[in-house]
Specification:
The protein has 141 residues and is an alpha+beta fold. The protein folds into two domains: 5-48, no CATH class; 52-138, ACT domain (Alpha-Beta Plaits). The chain contains five helices and four strands, in the order ααβαββαβα. It has helices spanning 5-19, 25-48, 67-77, 109-123, 132-138, and strands at residues 54-62, 81-90, 93-101, 126-131. A hairpin with a 2-residue loop joins strand 2 and strand 3. Helix 3 (67-77) runs antiparallel to helix 4. The chain is elongated.
Length: 141
């Protein structure tokens, strides 16, 4: 996460106010750096919350044999649990949505997404994966 100039300015003003008469440029810099580090750490922790739990996988493209097999094999190799699946073939077009639990996987969401991207390239289809919480927040009214 990158902080804007206004956010850094606000942190700096808060540090000066908190330090009062003891505020020196070096001390203010140290307090601001500590505050920014804490914000960045909490931001990284929030992102890492998406490394476990349930994800939504969406796949679509031209239909051909082996699509479901290739996707489910890659998920199985990553110790992912398919909790629900919906698939539709309309003439030559294939579409599928899966609800997957990646809690038991040794890999995080980003690594699994990268693997599924390789599978999609091999199959010449599109595969998207997003964390269930992100999916819920995006589609909330």
């Amino acid at each position: 996460m990158r902080l804007s100039e206004d956010e850094i300015r606000q942190i700096t003003l808060s540090a000066i106010e908190e330090l009062g008469e003891k505020a020196s440029p070096e001390l203010v810099r140290k307090v601001v750096q500590t505050s920014v580090s804490k914000i960045e750490a909490s931001s990284k922790a929030a992102v890492s919350d998406f490394s476990s739990g349930r994800v939504i996988l969406t796949a679509y493209g031209l239909n051909h044999p082996g699509i479901v097999s290739s996707i489910t094999k890659a998920l199985s190799d990553n110790n992912c649990d398919i909790q629900d699946i919906s698939q539709k073939i309309m003439q030559e077009f294939f579409s599928m949505i899966m609800l997957i639990d990646i809690t038991n996987s040794a890999r995080d969401l980003k690594e699994i997404q990268d693997e599924m991207s390789r599978v999609a390239d091999d199959l010449k289809i599109k595969i998207f994966m997003q964390h269930e919480d992100l999916f819920r927040f995006m589609h909330r009214i």
